[in-house]
């Protein structure tokens, strides 16, 4: 048996273990709302502290409120070899797909920002947390605060 229960300002997944004892798994979702989901199959947590709920084999989308900035593949903004980033085999000077940097999501993770799909292929300075994304651009500069990012 699985249920979502509101606990203060957080939500928890409560499941009845085979032993008969309940287990509580907190989910980083605000505000607290009892979610009507059809018996989640599994619950995993990623390094960003976000929950991934699987229902009948389908993973639900997660939305992160993040700060989004831009960078270019030039030595002044990266390192001495700007065409090679953290993901091996990708030419950052001529990227084969839209690239975003994030310090917590796995390489290859797809995210949607303002209707465009990006692939996590780079990392940033360790001073940036999981809620910061840096978009590789050819010269455009912008900064967005509390921008919704959908993680696929």
Which labels suit this protein?
single chain, six-stranded mixed barrel, 152 residues, Barwin-like endoglucanases, three-stranded antiparallel β-sheet, 2 domains, mainly beta, disordered N terminus
Which helices and strands appear, and what pairs or packs with what?
Layout: E1 2-7, E2 10-16, E3 22-27, E4 42-45, E5 51-55, E6 58-59, E7 62-71, E8 99-101, E9 110-113, E10 116-122, E11 132-136, E12 144-151
Parallel strand pairs: 7-11, 8-10
Antiparallel strand pairs: 1-2, 2-3, 4-5, 5-6, 7-12, 8-11, 9-10, 9-12
Overview of the structural elements:
The radius of gyration is 18 Å and the shape is globular. The chain has no helices and 12 strands. With 152 residues, it is mainly β. The strands form 3 sheets. It has a 6-stranded mixed β-barrel with strand order 7-11-8-10-9-12. A 3-stranded antiparallel β-sheet has the order 1-2-3, with no helix packed on it. The chain has 2 domains: 57 residues, no CATH class; 89 residues, Barwin-like endoglucanases.
How would you briefly describe this protein structure?
The protein folds into two domains: 2-58, no CATH class; 63-151, Barwin-like endoglucanases (Beta Barrel). The protein contains no helices and twelve strands.
CATH top-level class of the largest domain: Mainly Beta
Poorly predicted runs of 5 or more residues: 1-20, 23-47
Q: Shape, please?
A: globular
- How many helices? The count is 0
Q: What is the alpha-carbon Rg in Å? A: 18 Å
CATH fold category name of the largest domain = Barwin-like endoglucanases
Summarize the biggest pleated sheet: 6 strands, mixed, barrel
Q: Report the helical percentage.
A: under 10%
Mean pLDDT across all residues, rounded? 75
Q: Helix/strand-derived class?
A: mainly beta
Oligomer: single chain
> What is the CATH architecture annotation of the largest domain?
Beta Barrel
Number of domains: 2
> Would you list the SSEs in sequence order as H and E?
EEEEEEEEEEEE
How far is it from the N-terminal to the C-terminal residue, by CA? 27 Å
Strand order in the largest sheet: 7-11-8-10-9-12
Number of strands: 12
Hey, roughly how much beta strand do the residues contain? 35-45%
